[in-house]
Structure of 5-methyltetrahydropteroyltriglutamate--homocysteine S-methyltransferase:
Amino acid sequence: MGTQSHIAGYPRMGPKRELKFALESFWDGKSSAEDLQKVSADLRSSIWKQMSDAGTKYIPSNTFTYYDHVLDTTAMLGAVPPRYGWNGGEIGFDVFFSMARGNASVPAMEMTKWFDTNYHFIVPELGPEVNFSYSSHKAINEYKEAKALGVDTVPVLVGPVSYLLLSKPAKGVEKTFSLLSLLDKILPVYKEVISELKAAGASWIQLDEPTLVMDLDSHKLKAFTEAYSELESTLSGLNVLVETYFADIPAEAFKTLTSLKGVTAYGLDLVRGTKTLDLVKAEFPKGKYLFAGVVDGRNIWANDLSSSLSTLESLESIVGKDKLVVSTSCSLLHTAVDLVNETKLDDEIKSWLAFAAQKVVEVNALAKALAGKKDEQFFSANAAAQASRKSSPRVNNEAVQKAAAGLKGSEHRRATNVSARLDAQQKKLNLPILPTTTIGSFPQTVELRRVRREYKAKKISEEEYIKAIKEEIKKVVELQEELDIDVLVHGEPERNDMVEYFGEQLSGFAFTVNGWVQSYGSRCVKPPIIYGDVSRPKPMTVYWSSAAQSMTSRPMKGMLTGPVTILNWSFVRNDQPRFETCYQIALAIKDEVEDLEKAGINVIQIDEAALREGLPLRKSEQAFYLEWAVHSFRITNIGVQDTTQVCKL
């Protein structure tokens, strides 16, 4: 028996965002469809080769996409909304990208967050009128493409029930329309696809059914049972993996999953699904495979290999040695691509990290260790890195830990009540009944970006930089005064990104050069890494806000990004609960609020753009999240005077 290793999915963009640039060049008409296909084929083949070279047994195909995997499924099913004027036949780039991005005459389909990640998918628009037909052969084409390169892959499809549960009724369809009533209409297409894959030689297939981790009622759970019973005869002769991820799987759903007809293997997230382990240990069907997701697909930390190995060994006795497969907790889509391209991170921090390419190696190292071929050197280097991270003075700041601990159990409310504060603020600010203001940032011109870039590259002096930024602020202030705005903003010309700008000035944060993660389509974000206790060494925004206030007699708003948004848009340390890190950031923002106030800034806006984005998938966990998220905001302005107005957006 060889090593049993599996990767649930892989980033599509490429180590240096090759796909992003190829897509944007194609959309701008600067390159051909063939050019785009060539870049994409090269990316796919290098990923397959990389996984194969690492010893991966179950290598995924069809996890690449030109835009989004759910949109790929919509194309596969021929579920194109009528406004795109598609008349049947194989769906090409024109129709595909019109659905994704809209075109000159019709808007794009809606986009929404993929579970609780920062990735966005294109929401299918369905109704009783949709005629489903097999209209995109991407899955079979990619399977054959890999096979021609000598790699036998596991084709991955979004499972039929999750596809419907993630859809919405199309415009004009009753909001109460049951999307699951379309199951009988889409299953024939799934049967065609599966039969074709089987005929081409596929021996395994992966169906992603992540909605199984949600709070589903019995009617929805029954849909899984019915769908897989219907597919059973088509699936026979294949090994079928049903993959779930992002949370604990509820006990009822686990029962449903493990009794699905025609399914030979279950993929479970054991990083976010700690309770799932108990379900497996209590009852796991004999003779079935467990794809154990022990390597975190959603973060950039190196795996604690010895801890994972002991988890796997405890599972071996339940599942059986030949039926346990080491896997990622979910697709690696949600992590950065390759640590090799990080030239600016120091060696210590680098030793604590693993991006997608390194996670492939970790999965295989664990699988080899299980098979009795443990790479002692690799394991001991990993143990040393884990130990250094635990004890590093860069991670641990006792003063911050004390301050955060001191917050527990207090109510974090300002001392006086709201009406008294509003009176005091009105006396100080003297605003009209309905005062006007703007949200904050003004457009960043090409010229502004050039100034910031040249300053960063040391091509212009600090004096020249400050002069240019102050000139821009002056323009913005004059414009607002001309328009008779009551509470002004400085326009934020000095800021690159609402999270990065603060993270760069806080301790406990690190930044990558190429740690890009796909947000949607060709859009990528580069999340900061919070590796240690967070504190604010010195004021971050006071200089610019004071400069702006000195240009006007009207109130100038201080502009800060809130702690929850900074948390949700970063890779967060995994060695303490998220809320503790959030409280630390809140304390740093609190220091900034107090310094702004001392500098004479009496209106302070704290942006929480991502407050809802951290909301847990399961209702039972949402109340706790909202509680600490609200506490975090309160902490930021607990110490200010009554005359200072703090608002949250």
Residues 428 and 643 are 6 Å apart (CA to CA). The two ends are 57 Å apart (CA to CA). The first strand starts at residue 59 and ends at 61.
